[in-house]
């Protein structure tokens, strides 16, 4: 179909002629309501944003001479942060002569990792940078399955090939990543797009 015929057909239907794949030979176009398409795409993006979880890194600071009660309190703070889905950076700050006792700091972080146990994954083992020693803990992957909603904490059964089923893709015949380009002169005399 020639571009003039396609434009004429789009005007008759009071719609737009949208170039879907300009690099194809011949270029592929589609007759659609471009404003409605943009609205639906924006709506999908907003909906996807609602379901995103922003992971923040919360810091829990220790000293090498921390008392047992203070240690327990800070450990409980770290556990609460992990349950909320945030990562935890456990930091020990050394001052002055404490730099000669970095072994005590490593023992303290190892104790924290052991006490938290399977309620966290150690992303970075204790590492010293200057006068601070820190380890990064993340919530375990199984928590996502529990809060996944509707599955009861169970993953879908794998298929015979060992792969999990993927939900069907939505979006008609237009690729979601490549936004179509509106052709020039597509709006007719009575079109609401003018």
Q: How would you characterize the overall build of this protein?
A:
Helix content is about 30%, strand content about 20%. The chain is an alpha+beta fold. The chain has two domains: about 5-50 and about 175-180, Ubiquitin-like (UB roll), CATH 3.10.20; about 55-140, Translation Initiation Factor IF3. The strands form two sheets. A four-stranded mixed β-sheet has the order 3-4-6-5, covered by helices on one side. The chain starts with a helix and ends in a 12-residue tail after the last strand. The relative contact order is 0.17. The model is unreliable at about 145-155 and about 170-180 (pLDDT under 50).
Structure class:
alpha+beta
Number of helices: 5
Distance between the termini: 25 Å
Per DSSP E runs of 2 or more residues, the count of β-strands stands at: 7
Strand content: 15-25%
The CATH superfamily label of the largest domain reads: Translation initiation factor 3 (IF-3), C-terminal domain
Give the biggest beta sheet.
4 strands, mixed
Number of domains: 2
Q: Unreliable runs, pLDDT <50, ≥5 residues?
A: 143-157, 169-178
Return the average pLDDT rounded to an integer.
77
The name CATH uses for the topology of the largest domain is Translation Initiation Factor IF3
Helicity, in percent? 25-40%
Shape: rod-shaped
Instruction: Write the CATH architecture name of the largest domain.
Output: 2-Layer Sandwich
Structural Rg: 28 Å
What's the CATH first level of the largest domain? Answer: Alpha Beta
Spell out the helices and strands N to C: HEEHEHEHEEHE
For the biggest β-sheet, the strand order reads 3-4-6-5
